[in-house]
């Protein structure tokens, strides 16, 4: 199940141009930077910053107002977040497996005008799970698409071998049985047509 969660997160990241993957153990901490550098366009005038968590469903992690020093974490993260205002970096500590998911920085000018910036895929697992992922790496978009294509190919082959091939074999067996029955009926008809019918012999 953990490996499946890893693949799901990687597929989610493939929807973005670039994402940062972070692997950490339970009880550790992670740093999520929401600076302007991670935004795809100029966000001057966007004074509200939201950090969202998304896995099974989306929820708000914190709200930050650039015009004031206020930073409001939500109840789940209230005593676990430290804010570094100079770099707009947020440190989440005392991590658990429930913190595994996608984290997105979103700048808003109003309720209807928003820009999605930095994206992080966070794995909170033991050392034995997803151990091939270094603590913090940048996965190029091409690699994400290659992984996506490989997964789709494997699923397609699995469906082909488990669903399509057995039905084809069953159809072939049924076809051979029908052909054999047809040939048998033709032989009987041919034998009966060659044998002369003698009414006197039959009456005896």
Automatic annotation (TrEMBL):
The record, for Pfam families, names: V-set (PF07686)
Q: Which domain of life is it from?
A: Eukaryota
Q: Which residues form the signal peptide?
A: 1-19
Q: Where is the Ig-like domain?
A: 27-105
Keywords assigned by UniProt?
Answer: Membrane, Signal, Transmembrane, Transmembrane helix
For this UniProt entry, which segments traverse the membrane?
A: 142-165
Which Gene3D superfamilies does the record match to this protein?
Answer: Immunoglobulins (2.60.40.10)
What SUPFAM superfamilies is this protein classified in? Immunoglobulin (SSF48726)
Q: What is this protein called?
A: Ig-like domain-containing protein
> Which lineage?
Eukaryota, Metazoa, Chordata, Craniata, Vertebrata
């Amino acid at each position: 199940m953990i490996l499946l969660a890893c693949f799901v997160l990687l597929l989610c990241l493939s929807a973005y141009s670039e994402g940062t993957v972070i692997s950490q153990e339970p009880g550790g901490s992670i740093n999520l930077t929401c600076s302007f550098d991670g935004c795809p366009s100029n966000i001057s005038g966007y004074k509200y910053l939201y950090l969202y968590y998304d896995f099974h469903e989306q929820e708000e992690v914190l709200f930050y107002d650039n015009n004031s020093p206020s930073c409001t974490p939500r109840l789940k993260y209230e005593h676990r977040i430290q804010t570094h205002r100079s770099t707009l970096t947020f440190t989440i500590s005392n991590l658990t497996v429930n913190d595994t998911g996608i984290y997105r920085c979103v700048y808003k000018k109003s309720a209807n005008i928003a820009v999605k910036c930095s994206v992080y895929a966070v794995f909170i697992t033991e050392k034995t799970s997803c151990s091939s992922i270094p603590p913090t790496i940048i996965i190029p978009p091409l690699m994400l698409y290659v992984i996506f294509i490989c997964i789709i190919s494997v699923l397609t082959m699995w469906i082909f071998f488990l669903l399509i091939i057995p039905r084809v074999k069953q159809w072939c067996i049924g076809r051979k049985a029908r052909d054999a029955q047809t040939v048998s009926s033709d032989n009987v008809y041919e034998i009966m047509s060659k044998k002369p019918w003698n009414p006197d012999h039959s009456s005896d």
